[in-house]
Amino acid sequence: MSGTQIQNLVSMLNQIANNNNYKKTDEETAKIVANHLQKFWALSMRNKMTQYLAEDGPELTNVSKLALAQLK
Questions:
Q1: Are the C-beta atoms of residues 49 and 68 closer than 8 Å to each other?
Q2: Rounded to the nearest 5°, which phi and psi values hold at 17?
Q3: Which pLDDT score, from 0 to 100, does residue 33 have?
Q4: Contact (Cβ atoms closer than 8 angstroms) between residue 41 and residue 5
Q5: N or C: which end of the chain has fewer CB within 10 A?
Q6: CA-to-CA distance for 18 and 55, rounded, in angstroms?
Q7: 48 neighbors 2 (Cβ within 8 angstroms)
Q8: Percent of the chain at pLDDT exceeding 70
Q9: What is the 3-state composition of the chain as percent helix, strand, coil, each rounded to the nearest 5?
Q10: What's this model's pTM, rounded to 2 decimal places?
C-alpha cells in the first residue's frame, strides 16, 4: 500500500471517530469505531492501520488509536 493509501485510511478512520464522538467519552466512541471497522473494513485495511499504530501512528486521533487497540 502506498503512502497515499495509508493517508486515505488514516483520514477515513479519523473521520469515523470524529463523526461518532458527539457527547461520548473517548472510550465509548472507540468501542463504536472498533465495531464499525470490524463490520465494514477489509482485514487488509484493518491490518494496515494496526501496523501504522504500531509504528506510532502520529496522525491518528486518540479515539482512532483506542479503537485500533480494541481490534482482535
A1: yes
A2: -60, -45
A3: 98
A4: no
A5: C
A6: 22
A7: no
A8: 99
A9: 75, 0, 25
A10: 0.92
Q: How far apart are CA 55 and CA 4, in angstroms?
A: 17
Report pLDDT for 1: 59
Q: Quickly tell me which residue has 485510511 as its cell.
A: 9
SS3 (DSSP) at 20: coil
Specify the length of the chain in residues: 72
40-62 tens-digit pLDDT: 999 999 999 999 999 999 999 99
d(CA 22, CA 7): 24
Q: Which helix (H) or strand (E) holds 5?
A: helix 3-19
The answer to whether the CB of 32 falls within 8 A of the CB of 20 is: yes
Q: Residue 51's pLDDT is what?
A: 96
Quote the pLDDT of residue 3.
87
